[in-house]
Amino acid sequence: MAVPARTCGASRPGPARTARPWPGCGPQPGPGARRPLSLLLPSLLLLPLLAAPGASAYSFPQQHTMQHWARRLEQEVDGVMRIFGGVQQLREIYKDNRNLFEVQENEPQKLVEKVAGDIESLLDRKVQALKRLADAAENFQKAHRWQDNIKEEDILYYDAKADAELDDPESEDVERGSKASTLTLDFIEDPNFKNKVNYSYTAVQIPTDIYKGSTVILNELNWTEALENVFIENRRQDPTLLWQVFGSATGVTRYYPAAPWRAPKKIDLYDVRRRPWYIQGASSPKDMVIIVDVSGSVSGLTLKLMKTSVCEMLDTLSDDDYVNVASFNEKAQPVSCFTHLVQANVRNKKVFKEAVQGMVAKGTTGYKAGFEYAFDQLQNSNITRANCNKMIMMFTDGGEDRVQDVFEKYNWPNRTVRVFTFSVGQHNYDVTPLQWMACANKGYYFEIPSIGAIRINTQEYLDVLGRPMVLAGKEAKQVQWTNVYEDALGLGLVVTGTLPVFNLTQDGPGEKKNQLILGVMGIDVALNDIKRLTPNYTLGANGYVFAIDLNGYVLLHPNLKPQTTNFREPVTLDFLDAELEDENKEEIRRSMIDGNKGHKQIRTLVKSLDERYIDEVIRNYTWVPIRSTNYSLGLVLPPYSTFYLQANLSDQILQVKYFEFLLPSSFESEGHVFIAPREYCKDLNASDNNTEFLKNFIELMEKVTPDSKQCNNFLLHNLILDTGITQQLVERVWRDQDLNTYSLLAVFAATDGGITRVFPNKAAEDWTENPEPFNASFYRRSLDNYGYVFKPPHQDTLLRPLELENDTVGVLVSTAVELSLGGRTLRPAVVGVKLDLEAWAEKFKVLASNRTHQDQPQKCGPSSHCEMDCEVNNEDLLCVLIDDGGFLVLSNQNHQWDQVGRFFSEVDANLMLALYNNSFYTRKESYDYQAACAPQPPGNLGAAPRGVFVPTIADFLNLAWWTSAAAWSLFQQLLYGLIYHSWFQADPAEAEGSSETRESSCVMKQTQYYFGSVNASYNAIIDCGNCSRLFHAQRLTNTNLLFVVAEKPLCSQCEAGRLLQKETHSDGPEQCELVQRPRYRRGPHICFDYNATEDTSDCGRGASFPPSLGVLVSLQLLLLLGLPPRPQPQVHAHASRRL
């Protein structure tokens, strides 16, 4: 009999037919309107009355009835786990085998100091190699004689891009036939480099926009050839060395060992001077203010050049730098929401780049307004900044005002702020004032007549900033270690030690010494090599080592897993983003950045490995600085990982006996064994297929013993010990039990030693958990939670529902095995069962009913009065078990069985919202900065591609226009567009992408739910007029389950809000707000921004390409005829350096 339909204002069933209106006809509170329990008391007082039997046949179950059902559920789960889980029996097995293992202790302070020392030794070997290279490079260049008449055929070297260019018939070098000077090498595959290499030679990479045949480049190739022998000798002394690289200030990269360049499918825009490691090594940190002239005289094309120039300038900044960007005409204003200098990190630079595109030209030029704004920004001492090099970069089309009064007020006589001026576009203005500004303020003047000059001229200011470093001599020769970034040659994530290389030549006897930086020497260290120095498996599944730098970015962390990487940008994951941020972790982070030692036990939140759950846990953090570096190392240990087991299988007969239980021939009687894919031996072939991996392992063990020197004895002994121990569990518990009696699909045990045993053998066919227990969500969560942890099958809302008719679906229930041996507590294993979903759903209905196992379902007649239950009244009563993440585990509704594993809001949004609003659940939101997203379709934002200037008919008819700056600039735009194809594209980064459909990095917002503060059992009302519903919720003791009984909804008018759990695309937290409360950081310990002997007389020059009327007329005729212009010879821009 169904509960009568309800309407707002109508009477509702109650004791003795007493007519009372339904309370509250207003809408239910939304997700943000959570009601404290005190506000629920008036409603709760009614519930005992509503639960009493009335004239109607059924009433909502009373609270004590539902508590009785909950106890029955708890007892059933506990009984099954006691019989089949075998927790107690496994404890006894460990004690019976006590002579086969020792209990070792993890001493956090000793561990972290040892690992820090090992990392320091590793990096110190690279430092010594760096110093040898830098010293040799300076001596080679000093001894080199400059050759004005040097020719390409005089230089023999391996051009790393030669193979790629040979494959390209349109390559310029193929056309010129310059391959005569290029060596042809043979390569061998080297797994250490993940590349083909040649150890006898170096390779040379020259940027696409630099002419290889220029005198500067040929001389550079000539003297750097001598580095080859030093590279080879370094490798002889330290065979673990990876890439050794010299990045020249001219743009030439010479690296060892030689390897073909990984050329992208589009134009290769790699330039070593824009790499994070080069920028960090070439200059000290910078405080930079970029001001852009947006007066009306700035034409559309010139403004476009300025926008692109600013974006390229931003790319020369690293996370150690601070920047702001402003536009000016009569007044100056920031282009973005940033009102002061902000850290030049990836996300802040993205804000600037987007804001710059919105600049509009209008008004008159006001240099004074722009410079006063910039100086005020640099003088603001109330904000975090680099506090080293200070500079102003001004982009303009020209002007006559020198604003000397501004410089006298803010910068003279000390000239602590350098001024760099950029004359952009083709124009007839006098550039003398711009040159004077730069020269009078220790800066440099540049000209950017067209797009081809942008990349070169927006990075050469680094030469000027390098002067104080060169003049400081040995004091500035300090090795710096970079942030994590992606190696351009495919090595993966690396850090690089950098050391500047100085020009030691003098112009003549008695002359001042040269103040040019020659380049930066770098040596890569792969993160995997550093990880190998950390304890692998003695810390347990939830213990780990991490390291951070002075910015708080992680160098090592188990959550450092970028899904996609862009080699143009460093990988900058903050420690507080790698973990769930809280005050304790902020304090730990600050202490580590300050280079202190420390130890702290905290209660904190952690995400599960599958990122569906949140657990509140206790962790011990211990940290020390890594000497001689900018890094600090931390160790995280749960209390239960203070001790671990170390097998001692000296009895070879026992080794053989236990090993036999790994053979597939034993699986039918002993259950299927999955072994963790660990590096047990050097010669063990890895495989993603566990069956194949086990086969490889068995074949190797037939050739070597567990005590072999080529094997990890700790891993092997523990693996074999756990094989024997789990087999004894089969023998003592599982083999003699009938799983079908209790509707179980499987029983299982997983261990720290790397064994996962699933019984019976056929159950392994449906086993989908990770064979590495340390990477299995059920394993790690069971260790962190007391009691029984339920894990329903994972369902994505976009996938089809579970097909119960064809597949047997199981729900995992697991619990940790805790041992106490001599007062030392540890958790070396997890055991559990796999429930048959359909059978347990039926059992669930019976346990939450008013009958015993022997009784038939109670049916109420018209004259009898009884309470509804989950079995008989499943048409009117919804009964569910939901886990601590809010995912459906069991339901009395048959049509919901295929929704098991889904977030409950997708099943019953109304009820889930009520549970959240009544504090049964708490929500945690965070951001994943390492996600990968499909590329967005290009958008033009309502404008032509890249804002190409289109001349009007009037322009064509005006003879003066044909020789004007606009026509010439248009020609250069088209000409360089052939080279820099990305100028006409929506995203300039695509030029270096490997594929049109390549995924790009993005930010994803994650939301997890976990149990709130409510631990009691109580009833409540979902208050929504005629759609109001009664519900009861109660936590099941010793489990991660919430038992919920509710009236089924009679209408859908209360679908006011739906809680979302699925990960969603996001722009991340609002950057404009974040910069107001920047995270603590420290810059490098050294700063070289001033030297009294600096010669500032070399402060600028300009060069432009003279327009050719003939070429312009030909171009315009082609445009008028609608024909594509024939590609012109490439124009090469190169650094004009005084060597």
From TrEMBL:
<dbReference type="GO" id="GO:0046872">
    <property type="term" value="F:metal ion binding"/>
</dbReference>
<keyword id="KW-0109">Calcium transport</keyword>
<keyword id="KW-1015">Disulfide bond</keyword>
<keyword id="KW-0106">Calcium</keyword>
<dbReference type="InterPro" id="IPR013608">
    <property type="entry name" value="VWA_N"/>
</dbReference>
<keyword id="KW-0479">Metal-binding</keyword>
<dbReference type="InterPro" id="IPR051173">
    <property type="entry name" value="Ca_channel_alpha-2/delta"/>
</dbReference>
<feature type="region of interest" description="Disordered">
    <location>
        <begin position="1"/>
        <end position="30"/>
    </location>
</feature>
<dbReference type="InterPro" id="IPR002035">
    <property type="entry name" value="VWF_A"/>
</dbReference>
<dbReference type="GO" id="GO:0005245">
    <property type="term" value="F:voltage-gated calcium channel activity"/>
</dbReference>
<feature type="domain" description="VWFA">
    <location>
        <begin position="287"/>
        <end position="465"/>
    </location>
</feature>
<keyword id="KW-1133">Transmembrane helix</keyword>
<keyword id="KW-0472">Membrane</keyword>
<dbReference type="InterPro" id="IPR013680">
    <property type="entry name" value="VDCC_a2/dsu"/>
</dbReference>
<keyword id="KW-0325">Glycoprotein</keyword>
<keyword id="KW-0407">Ion channel</keyword>
<keyword id="KW-0406">Ion transport</keyword>
<dbReference type="Pfam" id="PF00092">
    <property type="entry name" value="VWA"/>
</dbReference>
<keyword id="KW-0851">Voltage-gated channel</keyword>
<protein>
    <submittedName>
        <fullName>Calcium voltage-gated channel auxiliary subunit alpha2delta 2</fullName>
    </submittedName>
</protein>
<keyword id="KW-0107">Calcium channel</keyword>
<dbReference type="Pfam" id="PF08473">
    <property type="entry name" value="VGCC_alpha2"/>
</dbReference>
<comment type="similarity">
    <text>Belongs to the calcium channel subunit alpha-2/delta family.</text>
</comment>
<keyword id="KW-0813">Transport</keyword>
<keyword id="KW-0812">Transmembrane</keyword>
<keyword id="KW-0732">Signal</keyword>
<dbReference type="InterPro" id="IPR036465">
    <property type="entry name" value="vWFA_dom_sf"/>
</dbReference>
<dbReference type="Pfam" id="PF08399">
    <property type="entry name" value="VWA_N"/>
</dbReference>
<dbReference type="GO" id="GO:0005891">
    <property type="term" value="C:voltage-gated calcium channel complex"/>
</dbReference>
